[in-house]
UniProtKB/TrEMBL annotation:
Top-level taxon in the UniProt lineage: Bacteria
Protein name: Uncharacterized protein
Record keywords: Membrane, Transmembrane, Transmembrane helix
Stretches that traverse the bilayer: 14-35, 47-66, 73-90, 96-115
Amino acid sequence: MFLKRIFGALQPTYLIRAYVISAVLMAMMVWFVIYMAKGEPLTFDRIATLSVFGIGALLFPFSKLVWDEIKRVMMGGNVFILPVIILMPLKLVVNYALWCFSIFIAPLGIAYLWLRSRQST
């Protein structure tokens, strides 16, 4: 019931796009952890790190939702046109930061979705 309400409150395209971004970032981090091991067997700390990354990757769409809602409230319907050379690196940095801190930010997004879906029923 809880998961159905939370995931049902989001558009499927939004979830797919967020999980694709999350999967790319997760793949980069897994590669980095394995590359740093330089052929050594995976130790408990590396497995724990990858587990935390995995949980963060699953929570990323809710973290992104918080960012998008804050942006919507602050900017309203305004549209800013920026050169792609500035916009794309900025979007990459924002998505990476949201992915890194998703364990801390996502509970706000989940609570927001829970309350929003409760009001609509």
